[in-house]
Please model this.
Amino acid sequence: MTELFDGEPSGARAAEYYDAAWLDGVPLPGTGIVGLMLGDQLHPPMVDDAGVWGSGPRWVEGARECTRRLARLAGIGPADAVLDVGCGVGGAVRQLSNEFGCRVAGLNVSAVQLRTAASLGGPAGRAVYVLGDAQRIPAREGAFTCAWTFNMFYHIPDKPRALREMHRVLAPGGRLAFDDWVLTPVADAADRAALRHHWSSPEWMTDGELLHAIRQAGFALRGEPADYTHVGAGVMRRLFASTYDRDFAPRIRALDATLGARMADDFREAVQHTIDLYASGRLRYLQLVAERR
Ligand SMILES: C[S@@+](CC[C@H](N)C(=O)[O-])C[C@H]1O[C@@H](n2cnc3c(N)ncnc32)[C@H](O)[C@@H]1O
Model:
């Protein structure tokens, strides 16, 4: 599928965040401590399942279920050519091609993550990895039937532009399969500043702004977005801290004598802040499908 691409990627701040090489001993280069908790699925297990949230080793299973859930919502099947925009280390590239039989191209600004993705392998002839920026996708017009973006849109500085790019590379009738967290209108400047601090992400949209931008880019929403905010405000709020403290924080502390404790505490604080935003109605977690008009 390499013939579908051209051009050079532009840089992005997110690449520095994920390429930071300060985690000697972590098995998935480019994933930081997230890989230690979630393997090749670099997104939270937003499932309403106390069994998953109460057991660290099961988080990856919950994260895979979230991938499967969106794939079903988007009706992905063997005829699809999917572009995974911000593919991490290719967790969804492998899962979508293995479970749904489609071809998948993974696009990422992080060269380190792409090297890790390639080293993990994938179905021969049905998966390819390409270095590139969501705001300037190095692919031909109409090359794909599905643009997949999973827990990465919050990273993008110019979100309307990225949506227009996903629209451009989709064939007529193609679908946008979208998963991300967005603010609500109640969120204030302090919430935005705290999110920027914790998650290395420049711009945050509200739910209304996101849906407007999706329509403006030339998509029609297929039904209402599926809302998983209740997971953040419910089972995640109840169980995240105790599971993290028991199953992951000690391992993160042990990674580095100087920085380990700080990394463990920073991550805990970042997630706890996110949970507070879900619980107070200032943040939502959405999955949605839209069709290219
Ligand atoms: C939280 S990870 C999610 C990865 C993957 N979607 C998953 O769920 O496992 C966010 C990903 O988006 C990538 N990313 C951030 N900004 C990007 C951009 N402008 N263009 C392409 N990829 C980007 C990061 O390098 C990282 O791989």
The longest strand covers residues 170-183. The two ends are 25 Å apart (CA to CA). Residues 260-279 form the longest helix (20 residues).
